[in-house]
Amino acid sequence: MTTVRELAQRCKKASAAFGNLRSGDKNKLLEALALVLLEKRGFIKTENQKDILLAKENGLTDAMIDRLRLTDARIDGMAGGIRKVIALPDPVGGQDGAYRHPEGMLIARQRVPLGVVGMIYESRPNVTVDSATLCLKSGNACLLRGGKEAIHSNIALSELIRKALKHCDLSEDLVCLVTDTNRQSAVDMMGLTGLLDVLIPRGGAGLINAVVENSRVPVIETGVGNCHVYVDNQADLRMATDITVNAKCSRPSVCNAAETLLVGSDIALKFLPLVQKGLEAYNVRLHGCPETISILGDSVIPATEDDWGKEYLDYDLAVRVVSGVDEAIEHIGKYTSGHSECIVTESYKNARTFCEGIDAAAVYVNASTRYSDGEEFGMGAEIGISTQKLHVRGPMGLEHLTTVKYIIQGNGEIR
Amino acid sequence: MTTVRELAQRCKKASAAFGNLRSGDKNKLLEALALVLLEKRGFIKTENQKDILLAKENGLTDAMIDRLRLTDARIDGMAGGIRKVIALPDPVGGQDGAYRHPEGMLIARQRVPLGVVGMIYESRPNVTVDSATLCLKSGNACLLRGGKEAIHSNIALSELIRKALKHCDLSEDLVCLVTDTNRQSAVDMMGLTGLLDVLIPRGGAGLINAVVENSRVPVIETGVGNCHVYVDNQADLRMATDITVNAKCSRPSVCNAAETLLVGSDIALKFLPLVQKGLEAYNVRLHGCPETISILGDSVIPATEDDWGKEYLDYDLAVRVVSGVDEAIEHIGKYTSGHSECIVTESYKNARTFCEGIDAAAVYVNASTRYSDGEEFGMGAEIGISTQKLHVRGPMGLEHLTTVKYIIQGNGEIR
């Protein structure tokens, strides 16, 4: 059996010639991939069905099974996603920061692919296609390792990707799938310094923390979102209700959903019943501080210390009354995962204080945290949302799968 | 005794309020630091003398003792370096990429400090002042750990830095020095996830590799330079000689010095004697391939496999004859440390091939690798030269000690 290291070596070898491929040729490849997915949808669904059956046998929840499932609509969605990426500008090859050295050389920074991108992800099989698409468009090879629940689907999809590569006379090794889905294969990937240029984990907090803690390959940490909405003492309460309900309920399973509501003490008595009513429509369970309970009564579950740090990813919301913007900043500073934080206020001063005082990828004034997303931020598709500070922070698009090299054009200059 | 973790906690606490300090106030602080260094030069030299004496007792080489020594000229140099940084623009606070979302919010990317920068470095004590200066100007706190050889000097310099901080009513904990210089304190720093935002090792390959292999804090790998000069079959041989001699001999102890010379086989017979003559003036020892030896004779030491990968940092040069640009690219691809690589050629095609085919921070056509440096590249002072691809590649200036946060100004938008 091919080892993970051998697969990575193949990827690296294939990546060398690929980095300078023209955009036009990369787009042709992606169109070929979209076509083969649509053509072979029967094959994809048959293989996916094997994963679904095993999932049922293994007693996975309906929600988990739903995440696994590839329907016609989802296959159309994958192809549509590829075509969106085709339409995006190619970040590779452009130059910026050109500077003429006093002695004459022209020094410019040229954008180049990272090389080989490693991805470790969990159940959703469409991540296989999304990741390969973004890596290929940005000139990178990729080594993909999905979860064991989706293994039949992932093998099928990676076969089709390799078919498209072959069809375009490109090395099939540009996209390699690690088919061994035991824990060791993930650990192996974390040790591939010199072969992988970056490792991106996508999934739950457990997976991401394990990769951050153990990887010797540089990691981009993604996606854990313990997001807060702070309703300031000077908020428009109607707007605050709408934003809270939207941030919590429009899609609770995603990382940019709100998990904690902080409420200024001056308006708590008036605002908490309003927002409770809005959240009731979605059967949101409130986990409140004593003050919240004293206002809303016993329907509120008493919050424990755990609740403030928790990413529920469900119809649960922690609620705490704070004195004002400074205490809100202090609370968030203690519990934030550095993803997206929001203040609702009509006060110019408090808005400024919040924006300066919060250390997170995205800081919102009077808008829902749900907008933290590559497409919403105008960068087209995203490969994840970085919650770290190095290399990229916030939504990670095509450009962030590239690096630079300086090109110095001289005329014999010596120093 | 204060633990490394406690020091880092103090740094982190101090950093929170510091990140938004105005440029004017940061520059006042740096001017105060320059003044205190000049005023207390007697104290600095006295403390430095203790390190020098210990170094002599411990039998360090003259070159190593010279690196340790703080003379009046070097103290003036440190103060002058600080004033250069004062003159540089402050990267913090600026916004770019402002984008109006179709629904109305303004989404902009604001530059913010990283937070707390960890530095692990070796003998030269001026790195203490240089690092603190760059970190403070870019709004960061820093945790510094120098080598044991310079401990008295480093303690003296960090006391003066803290004096300047106090003089300006800022927290002294913005710059903390780890005074325990055993191996464990470095290992402790590598485990400070959540406290250090980045760890930058500066020193020899051994130190850097140890940090890259073991750190759980994100690392920026710096400075190992196995740089190549390739003299193409279509080179101007006079220019090639000048560039080779300059790249090897103008300062062999630094990372941008050349370590290997590759020579096209068509011009080897004519070029090798020319370059040998140029290098003789500096008593450079040549380590050659069999072909080189057959041309230059027995004064050339036979090169072993080790020589191709070695960063001599001395008057040594590995020499190999290659068939042309493709074999040069192949050789460099195998042995490069990703720092700086040079082709000397009059051929447009070969220059392009080399620039596209080499994967390194800086690729030179007809200019010496010795220009790889933050000041030479127009970014003012540098904190190191990154040989990794993530976050920053090549010279690392003030901007690379910052990250971004997205600021979203809305009007109640929900998704």
Quick take:
The structure is a homodimer of 415-residue chains. Chain A is α/β, with parallel strands linked by helices and 415 residues long. Chain A has 15 helices and 16 strands.
Defining traits:
homodimer; 415 residues; alpha/beta; 7-stranded parallel sheet
Relative strand content of chain A: 15-25%
Radius of gyration of chain A: 24 Å
- Strand-pairing-aware structural class of chain A: alpha/beta
Strand elements of chain A, count: 16
Strand order of the main beta sheet of chain A, please?
10-9-11-8-7-12-13
Overall pLDDT score of chain A? 95
The termini of chain A sit apart by 53 Å
Largest interface: A-B, 67 and 68 residues
Residues in helices of chain A, as a percent range: 40-55%
**Oligomer classification:** homodimer
Shape of chain A: globular
Count of helical stretches of chain A: 15
Low-confidence spans of chain A:
none
Q: Describe the biggest sheet of chain A?
A: 7 strands, parallel
